[in-house]
Amino acid sequence: MDKFVITGGTRLTGEVSISGAKNAAIAIIPAVILSEGVCRIENVPNITDVTAITRILQDMGAVIRSVNKSTLEIDSRPIRSYVASYELARHMRASYYLLGALLGRFSHAVVTMPGGCDFGVRPIDQHLKGFSALGASYKLENGMVDVYSDQLVGSNIYMDVVTVGATVNTMLAAVRAKGTTVIENAAKEPHIVDLANFLNTMGADVRGAGTDVIKINGVEHLHGCTYSIIPDQIEAGTYMVAAAATGGDVTVGNVIPKHLESISAKLEEMGVEVEEYDDAVRVRRTKPLNKCNIKTMPHPGFPTDMQPQIAVLLSIARGTSIINEGIWDNRFRYVEELRRMGAQISVDGKVAVVEGIDHLTAAPVKATDLRAGAAMLIAAMCAHGVSSVEDIQHIERGYENVEEKFRALGADIRRVHVEETPSVARAV
Ligand code: EPZ
After folding, report:
1. Per-residue confidence at 119, pLDDT binned at 50, 70, 90?
2. By alpha-carbon position, which residue is closest to atom 27 of ligand 1?
3. 49: left (phi over 0), alpha (psi -120 to 50) or beta
4. Is the CB of 375 under 6 A from ligand 1?
5. Strand locations in 78-151 (E)
6. Which of 126, 131, 360, 362 could form a disulfide with 166 if both were Cys (CB 3.0 to 4.6 A apart)?
7. Of residues 117, 225, 292, 382, which has the active-site annotation?
8. pLDDT band at residue 121 under the 50/70/90 scheme
9. For this structure, is 39 an active site residue?
10. CA distance 128 to 118
11. Is 378 helix (H, G, I), strand (E, B) or coil?
12. Residues 217-224: what's their mean pLDDT?
């Protein structure tokens, strides 16, 4: 269990290159199960969530070759079982994408119930609604989800809530079903479009991804392919906010600016300069930050996965800002940590009120989840003094080479190994 020790106060300057999108990669890699050929996936981020999902596929029999640091060649033809390893899958929520992929290939899937996480209950009722609409039955017992069908048949599904996961899982189950499936009120995130493009590269017939109606004409066979994953919208946004928080001047390269529109718009509203290029954005902050209000929404709204990071920026802006968390019930756990650095934030349910202060002050803090951990890094970089950020394994789930990338921008960040102390049973 390592920690980062960060000395704040350095303006971040220079260039950073964004890696492949985590939330696209952990949907596309399971989708290879549907292929009857070898798939070469490029621009795969080197992060622990990807390691976890590839290990599950290998455990089931897939042959995965690492061509270079960001390219995998996956042959899922040797997979014979539709049961994913409980031990391997239970540690990773997104293992539930194996349900749609295994169901689509074997008409049967048995995968562990997804774990919750630090920001509230994470139901799968809409995933199960999608599978049922396609003619599958399911049972939830012994901590496993068991979904099975004699024959998946295309159908119309209206999602009660906009859900990335259920949209992905329904797409995976529908691409080889008999007939046509229409998903209404579908999620429109960039990683949904990326998955649709990958499936179509394998020979599927998926139309409308990126709109709220996705139409899928089932096909019998999907072949191998070569595909490159889109850049990570949230990694890019994290570096954009870090540049703004430190009063820096950073060019964030290898991005799709359109995916960053809501983040750029909010930064500009706060007085940050954002210049867009073909595949890069330059972020500069030369004057005090203005307050602004944030409401997290499904894409193309402001992403919930950028909420902790923007909260750090608002905590050092002039004035009072309001953050409305529109997606998750409890995504403000990180606020307790930020308060240790002097942030003036009060939380009431899904609303946070941020009173801007002149600057944060260093403190020992913890990463409570992936994006909260990224926010702690930003806070430590703009705080006065030396901070430590513990439990950085959360950050490494979704940020490739985070220490090297920030150090290359001038951050004073170093990794320190922490001996794991056996947990002491609390005196009752
Ligand atoms: C994905 O989670 C992302 N994870 C999350 O990013 C992200 O926060 C979330 O989408 C929203 O954009 C991955 O892509 C691996 P949802 P997911 O289903 O699919 C409710 C990160 O930091 N809901 O879109 O689990 C749910 O409670 C992670 O990279 C149901 O009610 O999220 C929530 O309120 C954190 N029933 C809303 O929908 C369901 O069956 C959105 O959830 C499913 C979801």
Report:
1. confident
2. 122
3. alpha
4. no
5. 108-112, 137-141, 144-148
6. 126
7. 117
8. confident
9. no
10. 23
11. helix
12. 98
Nearest to 281 by CA among 311, 236, 235: 236
Residue type, 209: A
Helix (H, G, I), strand (E, B) or coil at 416: strand
Which residue's CA lies nearest to atom 26 of ligand 1? 122
Single out the residue of 23, 34, 43, 158 nearest to residue 93, CA to CA.
Answer: 23
363, pLDDT greater than 60: yes
Identify which of 142, 143, 147 has the alpha carbon closest to the alpha carbon of residue 170.
147
Q: How many CB atoms lie within 10 A of CB 418?
A: 13
Q: Which of 163, 310, 331 to mutate to test the pocket of ligand 1 (most atoms within 8 A of CB)?
A: 163
Which residue, by CA, sits nearest to atom 22 of ligand 1?
A: 305
Query: What percent of the chain is modeled with pLDDT above 70?
Result: 97
**Number of residues that this document lists for the chain:** 428
Among candidate residues 289, 281, 355, the one with its CA nearest the CA of residue 322: 355
Q: How far is the CA of 166 from the centre of ligand 1 (A)?
A: 8
- Residue 175 corresponds to which tokens in the numbers above? 């691409």
Q: Does 328 sit in the ligand 1 pocket, CB within 6 Å?
A: yes
Residue type for position 188: K
Answer whether 116 contacts ligand 1 (Cβ < 6 A): no
- The predicted-structure confidence for 173-196, as pLDDT tens digits, reads as follows 999 999 999 999 999 999 999 999
Report the share of the chain in percent with pLDDT over 90: 93
- On whether the CB atoms of residues 334 and 376 are closer than 8 A, the answer is yes
Is residue 94 lining ligand 1, measured as CB closer than 6 Å?
A: yes
What pLDDT score does 428 carry?
43
The atom of ligand 1 lying closest to the CA of 370 is 22
Instruction: Please indicate, yes or no, whether the overall pTM of this predicted structure exceeds 0.85.
Output: yes
The verdict on the CB of residue 127 being under 6 Å from ligand 1 is yes
Band of pLDDT at residue 42, cut at 50, 70 and 90: very high
For 33, phi then psi, to 5°, come to -60, -25
Residue type, 192: I
Q: In sequence order, what are the residues at sequence separation of 6 or more whose Cβ sits closer than 8 angstroms to the Cβ of residue 87?
A: none
